[in-house]
Amino acid sequence: EIVASMASYQHQRHYGGGGKSSIGDIIAPAHGIREQQARRGIQPRDHARENRLALREQQMRNRERRHEESEIVHRQQPFKMQQFRNVQSKLKSDTESRVEKSKLRLDTERLKENQTRSGNSPRGSPADKRNSPTDGSNSRQFLKKGTLAQRQAEARAANAAKAEPSPRKKAGNGKAAVPSRADVGRLAPRQSKNFVSGNRNEAASMKVVRKAEVDPTQRHENYGNVPAYLQDRKAQWAEDEARRKAEARDPDCPAGMTLMPEEERLDTLRILNESEKETQALLFKMPMRVTTPSMVQKKNALEAKLKEIEAAKKIFSRQKVYVTE
């Protein structure tokens, strides 16, 4: 333990740990406060990581807040387009009006039935009414199971009988009624005709209707020929188009350069081919072994000239050659 503590003390002293030393700082200087903290055994703070964590937490809180606000808005008011915000639902109003009318009609029917029962019931004490016989015209009428549907059907039939037909139906211009399920059997029977084969046979036997030919007596002398003014106009348009293409600048041409004419390009290419043949002939006339400096210099010059001619031939062999203006 004593040896380990001494070694740790020497290490800290050498690297500027516990007791500071100018010699230790010169030999192993600390680059920044973070390195000084690391030498002292302190873990430096990772500010970048803390900032990333803080940003993620803030994003999560913002996302949750927006989600809660959207839920509150959806719960308070359902989605509706801007142009229909102040428009009332026609279906809702029609449904409410029909419900109110049906309630009023049922209330009226119940009131009439109650008045009818009260007029037919015998007069007397409650005991006499309870002890009155169940049969007879003056007997008390009780509601029985299943009579509600029957009474509603009777009321609908009565309303339908009282309702007057519309003026359109009276005039006889109304739309025909849809046949019921029982009337389907009285329709025309289905035909077992093969329409596909019938159409095929008709198409095979169909005759081509030819257009009636024009009477030769009604043709003029220039019949079928293009008028002269149209021919002149087409020729003028062709000349204008050719002139426009000739005067138009080549889009591939760089700035400050112009396109070399085709004749000049071919003439230059011909001159290069002749020069290449002459240079090759001079090179072939030289001896196999060249030792003198003058002969070596002449051979190098001929080989360099051949390389220049080959490079120039590659350039002038293109479809378009651009030269400086």
Provide a brief overview of the structure.
This protein is an all-alpha fold. The chain is built from 12 helices and 2 strands, in the order ααααααααααβααβ. α11 packs antiparallel against α12.
Characteristic key phrases:
325 residues; mainly alpha; two-stranded antiparallel sheet; 2 strands; 59% helix; disordered N terminus
Task: Give a verbal description of the structure.
Helix content is 59%, strand content 2%. The protein has 325 residues and is mainly α. Strands 1-2 form a two-stranded antiparallel sheet. It starts with a helix and ends with a strand. The N terminus is likely disordered.
Protein topology:
Layout: H1 2-14, H2 22-27, H3 33-39, H4 47-76, H5 90-120, H6 126-130, H7 147-162, H8 167-171, H9 195-204, H10 228-247, E1 257-259, H11 262-285, H12 293-316, E2 322-324
Antiparallel strand pairs: 1-2
Helix pairs in contact: 11-12
